[in-house]
Amino acid sequence: MEGAPLEGTKIALSAALTNLDSKDSFNIIAFNGETYLFSSSMELASEDTVERAVEWMSMNLIAGGDTNILVPLKQVIFH
User: Fold this and answer.
1) Whole-number Å distance between alpha carbons of 12 and 16
2) Whole-prediction pTM value?
3) Residue range(s) defining the domain that contains residue 66
C-alpha cells in the first residue's frame, strides 16, 4: 500500500485513536518485511500517548516490503 491509500489509512487510524476513551488501551503494529510495534505492551489512550502514536505512525507506516500479515499477527497473538 502506498500513496493515497496509505495516507487515508493514517488519517483513519489517527481519527480512531483520537476517539478512544482515556480508559481504553491500544497498540499499533506496522509491517513491511519487518515488524514494528508502537509499544511493547498495550497503552492507555491518554492524550499524550495518542499524540506519540500519531507521530510514530508518520515515521513507521511507510510503503515497501512484504504485505504478508501472518507474521505480525502471530507476533501480536502470541506475544
Assistant:
1) 6
2) 0.79
3) 4-78
Q: Three-state DSSP class for 40? A: coil
Q: What is the number of structural domains in the chain?
A: 1
Query: Which cell numbers hold the place of 4?
Result: 493515497
Angle at 67 between CA 63 and CA 70, to 5 degrees: 140
- Hey, how many other C-beta atoms are within 10 angstroms of the C-beta on 59? 9
For 9, 26, 55, 77, the CA distances from 3, given in Å and listed in that order, are 10, 25, 18, 29
8-state DSSP, 26: E
CB 34 within 8 A of CB 65: yes
Identify whether the C-beta of residue 26 lies closer than 8 Å to the C-beta of residue 20.
Answer: yes
Residue numbers of the chain with a pLDDT score lower than 50 = none
